[in-house]
Amino acid sequence: MEQFYQLGWTLDSAGGVSGEAYMAEQDGQKLFLKRNSNPFIAALSAEGIVPKLVWTKRIETGEVVTAQHWKNGRELNANEMGQARVAHLLKKIHRSQPLLTMLKRMEMSPITPEIMLHKINASLSRDVLTHHVVRKALIYLEDHIPNLDPRFYAVVHGDVNHNNWLLSDKDELYLVDWEGAMIADWAIDIGMLLYNYVPESQWAEWLETYGVKETLDLNKRMKWYTVIQSIGMIQWSEEHKRFKEMNTWLEFLNDVMKSNLFI
Length: 263
Known about the structure:
Elements: H1 2-6, E1 10-13, E2 21-26, E3 29-35, H2 41-46, E4 53-58, E5 64-69, E6 73-75, H3 84-94, H4 97-105, H5 113-123, H6 126-129, H7 132-143, E7 153-156, E8 165-168, E9 173-175, E10 182-185, H8 187-197, H9 203-210, H10 216-239, H11 243-258
Antiparallel strand pairs: 1-2, 2-3, 3-5, 4-5, 6-8, 7-10, 8-9
Domain Aminoglycoside phosphotransferase: 15-213
Keywords: Transferase
Organism: Staphylococcus muscae
């Protein structure tokens, strides 16, 4: 990013795991810069899902840098995740044909439950497999693979953690960090959100706001995806030696497995 310094910009790290995001400022103008950003960002900007894309440039290293309007704001907190505007923005994303068309143009194929299960089985370490709840969950996944209707395939974010929701100081809501975007069952996003943030007694109301009815089939799909994503987070935490987070996810997985026993 040296050339931006040479052009008179000041750069400050904008955080994030990758360390490739910056807040750039020059003459009072602020931009959010990111190296090697997902090319999907242009379509997301056009739909108003992320802050507006200003430009895209290839720098001397061959890397691509994107610049978006800088938004002063904050992350949503856990208690705000059940709000109607969260449901409405997810519905907009999952129903968007332009976004789905863009991912297809990028030659992205749908991620089926079978593909997800194969990947998780291939990724688990011996240490993770020592946990009884993980082994029990893997058996559950094998026995309850969703029989998916192709109509359920949509653009899926894949990590709807409250930290990825940006609320600007002008009350604009965005969903950011799209590195894991995929074509898959939209219940992937819904399941993790509901199990993490919304009391089960309020699921029917939240789903109605989102635009669907709570059904046995939907509950089965949400539980299956939440279980498999939780195992993935346990493995990720173990690999990065974040053992406190790993234990939190193990407890969460155990709670999910105990919930809705009829499914």
